[in-house]
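Revision sheet: structure tokens.
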Amino acid sequence: MARQIREAGMDVRDISHDTVHRVLRCLKVPTWPSLEAVVTVLAGDLDEYRQLWIECRTEEGNAEPAALPRARPTRRRKATSSNQVLPGSEAVPAGLGHLAEVAGDANMVPRLSGDVSRIPPETFADDLKPSDLTRLVSIGTLRRYRPGENLHRQGSHDTHVHLLVSGVVAVRTGGGGETRLLALYSAGDLVGDSAILDGRPQAATVTALVYCTAVAVPGERFRRYLSSTPSAVMALLSVTGRRLRRSHEQQLLAMLPSMQRLALFLVDLAQRFGRLTEHGIAIDVGLSQNDLASAIGASPGTTGRILRELHERGLIVTRYRTIFVEDISCLQALADMQAL
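Predicted:
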């Protein structure tokens, strides 16, 4: 048996010999990517083993949860992979901290920024049934991204979709020396899915604005997941609907004065990403003045002038890539008054 383990380990390149040893010895239920790699090398029936693996994971999830194993880091981002099934009833949605556990990094949970005790509303993760969300995360790998690092690059043929667990990413398009900010996404959102589904190059670049964690799911696995999960298809349709609605709202905003557009954008940022501090609501997601300008369709000069005016009115304080909203009610009232 030891010789067979060594031979299998030499053929399986994506996982360590120690992992192959644990899979073949059946010391515990392995992660699906590890089991899939070993079964493939040994010419086994993937469908049969997949079904057996799901049954084992289901039984494991109904039992007392065991301590999560320390997963083997990868070379680039120390990404880890595990397939721990969440215990508990479907009536209680899993929190984002649990997503990190399912994806294989229980040690990351205390370091996740923001409220990880629940799934943010109106996100792809929130639209999924808890069991389907768990299954999606279990077939992916948890990755970390530094500020400025790209999850997807415009024009590239990417092979993964990303389900964000923490942090904020910017979706930008560029051409002719100009860059436009299209959208911001955070925990619970799905990015990179369009290119995976239609097979075309990425239409935009997705960049981490702050330290981010995301579950990367290979495109082929994601397509198989959709084909076998009706609720995921409906969730993706809901995501598409929200994206279209936001795009339509942005077109309507383009007809409003620049002051109102910026006020509305700042209120939206404060509500989505702001955190309370002694100086007001801090919007510290790493947006530059050029990002603000492109988001509202104004020049950097005009945007800077409006920021100074808002500061003189005592509504905001600006720092490097950070804006403190000192009076959110007055900022909202300014936007509403301009809208009349």
